[in-house]
């Protein structure tokens, strides 16, 4: 069982937890999506190797720089570990590092094979925590906090880098619409998430059907999640959550940048690179394998990168972006299974010890009773009644 300190304030989120359970992927879904992803990767590799008109991409791989390949792997590893740090911070450090690692890497592996904007891993992580003994309301609420904060980093990156590109502070040749519009949309979304849940009047669910009741519950849940996120980031300044969320995003951007450099470089300037990365990853919202890759290819191409470099770099990046979480997720699942087995053995040993103590106490009481009765002449020393003795 996970070691957990009960929070002082807890809200009933039973309905949200049920929704999380429904959305959480099962092992069959993860295997199917993993097989599809592996199949697409093999098809892409075969196409690069044998299809004649893809020769420019093959040429990119001919002079791959091994040092930058290693950097792509290391930076991706740091990104996943940063997510683990953010997860522990989101849960007020009530999870030990071991449990935070297990849950975090399993969530990340689910996100790779379940492209749904991160909600697939979120739901899976919430269910794992609930089944491990974390109070339902707390598990669902803090999983939402983790999702909101890590997503907010992407939003602020669009605002900052898009704004700096628009006013000419950062180098890069892109239209004003291509830089300012994404920044403005991100600013509207971030502001809406922070202010709208509390600015809008609470929906009255005393009248109406299931839809109205669900909308009221979702509004209350979102309001609490946003309030908790603001309190952790601004009020308590929970550095594990802040630094973990920033590192999760920044190391992943750097990993893709290293993949570009491994194939010869020539990608967009820093600000445009961040914009292309963030906008391209929005394609993961579409729950289909390959949606994120398609979004990234389109975004980087629109910002002026050569198509052969973009496709080759994204293929290299995805090897580690999928492979690192997959391997760490397998370790996390194995550790959870082993830890659960150890917990069962520990519980069994404690139960056996308790039963032995109870048995010893009962036997002690029986011996004492026999001793008292023997002293009165009612039983002999072996506990047999003395016939005829009155």
Structure description:
- There is one protein chain.
- With 390 residues, the protein is mostly helical.
- The chain has one domain.
- 76% of the residues lie in helices and 0% in strands.
- It contains 13 helices and no strands.
- Helix 4 runs antiparallel to helix 10 and helix 12 runs antiparallel to helix 13.
- The longest helix is centred in the C-terminal third of the chain and has 69 residues.
- It is globular, with a radius of gyration of 29 Å.
Ordered list of secondary-structure elements with their pairings:
Layout (H helix, E strand, L loop, with lengths): L13 H10 L3 H24 L4 H8 L3 H25 L6 H17 L5 H13 L4 H31 L9 H24 L10 H26 L3 H24 L7 H12 L9 H12 L4 H69 L15
Distinctive features:
390 residues, mainly alpha, 13 helices
Question: What is the strand tally?
Answer: 0
* Helix/strand order: HHHHHHHHHHHHH
Structural class: mainly alpha
**Number of helical runs?**
13
Low-confidence stretches: 3-18, 20-27, 343-349
Described by strand count, sense and barrel closure, the largest sheet is: none
What is the distance, rounded to the nearest whole angstrom, between the alpha carbons of the first and last residues?
59 Å
Average pLDDT level:
75
């Amino acid at each position: 069982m996970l070691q957990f300190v009960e929070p002082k304030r807890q809200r009933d989120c039973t309905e949200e937890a049920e929704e999380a359970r429904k959305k959480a992927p099962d092992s069959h879904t993860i295997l199917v999506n993993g097989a599809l992803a592996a199949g697409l990767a093999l098809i892409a590799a075969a196409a690069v190797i044998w299809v004649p008109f893809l020769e420019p991409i093959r040429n990119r791989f001919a002079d791959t720089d091994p040092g930058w390949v290693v950097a792509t792997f290391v930076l991706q590893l740091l990104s996943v570990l940063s997510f683990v740090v953010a997860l522990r911070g989101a849960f007020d450090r009530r999870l030990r590092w071991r449990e935070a690692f297990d849950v975090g890497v399993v969530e990340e592996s689910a996100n790779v094979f379940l492209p749904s904007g991160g909600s697939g891993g979120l739901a899976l992580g919430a269910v794992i925590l609930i089944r491990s003994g974390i109070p339902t309301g707390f598990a669902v609420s803090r999983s939402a906090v983790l999702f909101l904060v890590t997503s907010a980093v992407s939003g602020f990156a669009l605002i900052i880098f898009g704004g700096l590109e628009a006013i000419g502070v950062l180098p890069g040749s892109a239209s004003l619409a291509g830089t300012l519009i994404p920044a403005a949309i991100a600013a509207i979304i971030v502001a809406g998430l922070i202010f709208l849940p509390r600015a809008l009047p609470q929906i009255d669910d005393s009248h109406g059907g299931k839809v109205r009741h669900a909308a009221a519950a979702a509004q209350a849940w979102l309001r609490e999640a946003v309030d908790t996120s603001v309190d952790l980031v601004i009020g308590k300044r929970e550095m594990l959550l802040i630094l973990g969320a920033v590192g999760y995003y920044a190391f992943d951007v750097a990993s893709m940048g290293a993949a570009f450099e491994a194939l010869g470089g020539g990608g967009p300037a820093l600000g445009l690179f961040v914009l292309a990365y963030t906008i391209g990853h929005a394609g993961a919202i579409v729950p289909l394998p390959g949606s994120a890759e398609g979004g990234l290819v389109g975004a980087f191409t629109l910002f002026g990168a050569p198509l052969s470099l973009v496709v080759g770099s994204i293929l290299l990046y995805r090897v580690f972006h999928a492979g690192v979480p997959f391997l760490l997720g397998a370790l996390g699942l194995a550790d959870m299974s082993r830890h659960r087995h150890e917990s069962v053995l520990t519980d069994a040993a404690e139960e056996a010890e308790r039963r032995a103590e109870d048995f010893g106490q009962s036997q002690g009481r029986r011996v004492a009773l026999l001793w008292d009765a023997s002293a009165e002449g009612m039983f002999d020393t072996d506990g047999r009644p003395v016939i005829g003795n009155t």
